[in-house]
Amino acid sequence: MATTASFSKRRDALIQDRQSLAARYWQDEHIESLVHDLTQGMDELLTELWQEHLADSNDIALFAVGGYGRGELHPGSDIDLLIVAKKPLKYKRQIEVFLQGVFDLNVEVGHSVRDLKSCRRESHNDITVATAMFERRFITGDKSFVPHVDKTMDSPRLWPVEKFFRAKHDEQVQRHKHYDNTEYNLEPNVKTSPGGLRDIHTTLWICKRQFGTDDPQRLVEMGVMTETEMQWLVEGRRFLWWVRYGLHLLAARKEDQLGFAYQRELAQRLGFVDTDALSGVERFMQHYYRHVLELTEVNDILIQYFREVILAPRKTRRESLNERFELTNHYIETVDDNVFRESPSALLEIFVILANRNDIAGVRASTIRLVRDNLHLIDDEFRANPDHAELFMELLKAPYTIVSQLTRMRRYGILGRYIPEYGKIIGQMQHDLFHTYTVDAHTMMVIRNMRRFRYRSAEREFPVAYHCAHAIPKVELLYIAGLYHDIGKGRGGDHSTLGAVDARDFCKRHRLSDVDTELVCWLVETHLYMSTFSQREDIYDPDVVYRFASEMKSQMRLDYLYALTVADINATNPTLWNSWRATLLRHLYGEARKTLRRGLESPVDRAQTIAASQERALERLLGQEANEDEVIALWQDLGDDFFLRHTPPQIAKISSELIAHDLTTGPYIDVRDTQAQLPGEGATQIYIYTIDEPRLFASTVGALARQGLSVVDATVNTTANGLCFDTYTVLDQEGAPVGKDPQARQDIVQQLRQTITNPERVTKSSKRLLSRRLRELPWPTQVNIKPGPNKHESTIMILACDRPGLLATIAELLIKLDLSLLSARIATLGERVEDTFVVETEAGTSIDSGEATYTIAQTIRQGINRALAVA
Questions:
Q1: With the C-alpha atoms ordered 627, 628, 631, 637, is the resulting torsion angle positive or negative?
Q2: Buried b vs exposed e over 75-95: b needs ≥16 C-beta within 10 Å?
């Protein structure tokens, strides 16, 4: 029996071995050598243990399976073991002691003990078990027993190749769906994301089952893959091994998610430095994504090749499309290998054909390879050819699968060659929380959303976008704007301006009219305008709406910009689109549309709008026997925003409740939903009318945060007579209005009342923890102070990383600085906030000193950062 000392000696030896390998890794030694040596070292330890407990045992053998079986061991990898014995019970005690010795090495172990029948049975029942056993690797034991295992497991009747292919392909499809079918996630999984190691495994598993080998060089010799594909596969696997090995070392455990913190540290330690245009981590991740894109193409080609070889129908069906292309079993292919050389325009024509028919399943593997082999034909002369420009425009006008064809063109290398400026953003990451995908993947999603807006199914979820997408006269112009809206990123400078320059060149090359060109360039240059305007401006003010409508100039431009804006937001980050944002954009769209229909020469007067609302509301109140003097006196306390943001019936109802409420009994608090005009819109508004005091805003927003509510808008109105009327617009943690449960609403009212009336109330922030992403990639806090709307006021704009209780923190800081809050505008952009506060000093003056401005800005910035650090 092994002693405790021998176990300790082995553990120490394993630790020393891994430390040595880690040092070799950071010295940039070849990753294949490291993976091989780590695997071999584990083999030797296990063989030594086996010899101690099972030496000279018959009809029993130890195999490595899974990644260990492939020889792909990384520092945190599981050690997957399979013990096969003719009669496992005969060695029960020895096996237990052997496995205990393995566990004592302090490694993650997966193990199974089976006889030959159970090997076959379990493999038959579970494709995952079968796959692991198919890639078994003998380590030690009775070598004469191995052929019996091979005979049992290598039977062609056990997972016939067609069944095996379908099962592994289905696994891949489901796995890719989990990642939204994109290899360009913000924090990719090196192993399981599309284009990751698991895709390589899937390809080679099927090759092994069909052709009897998973050796890339042998597969080239057999004509299964090309030299280029082998190079992409081998170099891509090497790179992913390199990243995964370092990831495991940094995490000191098995970790395949390439999170922000690991991205930065790996980029720095592996020598990726900052440039003027891109940070080191962005350069590292672009390197990562480009390898992944190549691996994705290898996987796509080979999966298609397997379809043709493994799933080929007995009878081949052919259909001639033209003198260049034909369909074979519903897949398009060239009539011969010289088509692209003889007719370079066919490199675009193939995608036009695909987008004009909905009965073509895809592209034959041989044709994909021909496309790639002829990419060099797409040069300046090719791009300048008007016939090719016409083909590309025909693609954008096609009725079917435009996004699928643009995505194919991106993967096959066509799009980056035909539009060189697009080629520069392929795999370009944006290292922040605001963007979830790389620039090129985001661009494809924007166009996909634009296409969705044309479908009847989008009418309920995006009714205004659906209307706009059908109202615009040339949808292809919208797609071009989507293609170019972010194309200027990564070059330094304003990406909108740079993109508009590129878009103009594209429009000129594709012979668009001057009017269409100006529209596309305007859309690219102003693609962020509507989104930021709706969040930062008071869009309920007629003067503000008029300013926005003047920028639009026409209903047509408004429709184009709205569709682009909503498509962009929904393709940027899943958390950005919520019911409140939908409400804001719909309201701005609707009011701008009214202004444009009325004519820009006939602006609506703000004062007249307020007076008209008051007049109609007063008629209602007087009809309910209200006292006119009381109503007029109350309205002096409510502020103009109240009359701009509410309809006359709402004004009348709230006014009557406020008049009836006795403030000596406590504050007036009411919770009600905004009137959602369309599905997917709305928010919950909380009204508070009470005697003002310095901590009111801080305590209120703190109480709301503790209840899991996010404040997306706030109107603070303080009167000269010491009263305060505040309105808070809130969403729940799902980004939706508060539920209809009366008890839940009553709880909100009760907690707010206790917070406001209790002189010793607690104003601590919510205890909800910050997400890992926020901790790893905090948005740098920015504080800007400028003159306010009136001479005695100042405006403080804060851009910061969002977190529970942030508003309460800001409010406490304003108190500490002796600043009185007059109004607040809250804008939450994903996990970033852009909040604006209008304040005055306790003396009723603005912050007019440069030194005072600097001190206040620094105090707020440091206070927010401290709160973020300890959250």
A1: negative
A2: bbbbbbbbbbbeebeebeebb
Residues 717/726, Cβ–Cβ less than 8 Å: yes
Closest CA to 641 of 685, 703, 696, 592: 685
Token pair of 511, please? 């012979």
Using CA atoms, how far residue 843 sits from 529, 792, 846, in Å, is: 37, 9, 9
> Residue 370: is its pLDDT beyond 90?
yes
**Half-sphere exposure (CA, 13 Å, Cβ side) for 49?**
25
Integer Cα distance of 869 and 776 in angstroms: 11
- Give 775-796 pLDDT, tens digit per residue: 666 668 899 998 887 888 889 9
Identify which of 435, 177, 185, 445 has the alpha carbon closest to the alpha carbon of residue 292: 185
Q: Residue 97 is which amino acid?
A: V
Q: How far is CA 586 from CA 536, 582, 610, in A?
A: 15, 6, 21
Write the burial class of residue 323 (CB in 10 Å: 0-12 exposed, 13-18 middle, 19+ buried): exposed
**497-500: long-range pairs with CB below 8 Å, 24+:** 497/525, 499/524, 499/525, 500/524, 500/525
- Asked if 658 and 668 touch (Cβ cutoff 8 Å), the reply is yes
CA 852-692-640 angle, 5° bins: 85
- Going across the sheet that includes 318-320, the strands are 318-320, 325-328, 331-334, 362-363
d(CA 390, CA 343): 15
Distances (CA, A) of 472 to 228, 467, 592: 44, 9, 16
**What tokens does 178 get?**
């989990």
Q: Where are the beta strands (DSSP E) in 342-413?
A: 362-363
Residue 820: both structure tokens together = 């009185």
Length of the chain equals: 871
Please say whether the beta carbons of 742 and 589 come within 8 A.
no
Task: Indicate the helix (H) or strand (E) that contains 347.
Answer: helix 346-355
Can you tell me the distance from the alpha carbon of 440 to that of 426, in angstroms, rounded to the nearest whole number? 5
CB atoms within 10 A of CB 648: 18
Predicted confidence at residue 433, as pLDDT, reads 58
- The three-class DSSP label of residue 794 is strand
Quick one: which of 283, 263, 186 has its CA closest to 490? 283
Q: Do 357 and 405 form a contact (C-beta atoms < 8 A)?
A: no
Tens digit of pLDDT for each residue in 569-607?
999 876 778 888 899 999 999 999 999 999 988 888 889
Contact 725, 689 (CB under 8 A): yes
For CA atoms 654, 655, 661, 664, the dihedral sign is: positive
CB of 460 closer than 8 Å to CB of 504: no
Dist. CA 239–CA 262, nearest whole Å = 16
Task: Considering only residues 140 and 313, tell me which one the structure prediction assigns the higher pLDDT.
Answer: 140
Query: Measured between alpha carbons, how far is 33 from 18 in angstroms, rounded to an integer?
Result: 13
Nearest to 197 by CA among 239, 248, 246: 239
Instruction: Convert 234-276 into a string of H (helix), E (strand) and C (coil).
Output: HHHHHHHHHHHHHHHHHHCCCCCECCHHHHHHHHHHCCCCCCC
What's the farthest any 2 CA atoms get from each other in the chain?
Answer: 105
Rounded Cα–Cα distance for residues 710 and 728 (Å)? 10
Distance CA 164, CA 482 (A): 41
DSSP characters over 49-76: HHHHHHTT-SSEEEEE-HHHHHT---TT
Whole-prediction pTM: 0.86
Q: Domains (ranges, CATH) in the chain?
A: 4-159 (3.30.460.10), 162-310 (1.20.120.330), 314-418 (1.10.110.30), 423-603 (no CATH), 769-871 (3.30.70.260)
112-151 pLDDT tens trace: 999 999 999 999 999 999 999 999 999 999 999 999 999 9
